[in-house]
Predict the structure of 4-hydroxy-tetrahydrodipicolinate reductase.
Amino acid sequence: MVTIAIMGAAGRMGRTLIQVISQDPQCRLGGALESSQCALLGQDAGVVAGVGTQGVSLSSDPDDLSACDVFIDFSSVEAFEHHVEIASRFKKAYVVGTTGLREEHFKALDEASKVIPVLWAPNFSVGVNLMVKLVQMAAEVLSSGFDVEIVEAHHRLKKDAPSGTAVKLLEVLKEAYKTEDVIYGRSGITGERPQGQIGVHAVRGGDIVGDHTVSFCGIGERIEITHRASSRETFARGAVRAAKFLAGKPAKRYTIEEVLGL
C-alpha cells in the first residue's frame, strides 16, 4: 500500500487526484496540503473532493505529511520552491506535474534528486507521451519538405502558455529539425514562411481540458497527430501510476518514459 500526500489538494487537479486515489486499492490518501489562506482548511479532503470522508483533513502544516511515502504536486509555480523543500526535508519521493517552471526550478529538482527520487513531467497522460514518441518518429521521416506547426488549447484559467506539453513537443521537433527558429503566433505582414521554422500557437477558452495537434504540412499532403483530453482524470491516473513507480526507489531524476515503459 502506497501512502500519498497531495500538495495543492483543494485545487482542480488536487481534487481529481484524491478521487483517483480513493478508487485505487494499492493506494491511500495520507496527507492533503494547502496554503494557510485556503478557506477549506480543517475540512476532510475526501469530502472536498466529492468522494466522502477519507479521514484526512486539509492542512497547511507540512508535518502532517511526514508519514506519507510519496508527495504529488500539481499546485503552482509560486508554491513550488516551498514544496520541493518539504519533500527534500522529509526524504519523500516527489512527483511533480506543475507547468511553467523556470530554469532555477529545474535546478532545484536536480538538487533534490540527490536525496530523494524525483519525477517531473509536463503531462502524465499515457496517450500524450505516446504522442510525443509518434511525433519524434514522424519528424525523423518528414524532416525535409514539410512545415511543422504546434497548436494547443486549454481552459481559460490556465496561467502559462504555451503548455508544458507543447514545450516538450517543441523540444522534440527542434532536435529533429536541427533548428532554433521558432515563432509563437503570427500577426501582421509576416512574409513568406521560412524553411525549417516551427510555429507554436496557444488557444485559451472555456473549460478545454487539453488539446494538442502537431501538423506536418507538405506539398499536396498534410499529416496531423492529435491528442485530446476530455477529463483531468487522465492526468491524475498517470500521476498516481508514477507515484506507485517511485515509491521505494533510490534518489535520482526519473522520467515519465520509464514509468510507461516507453
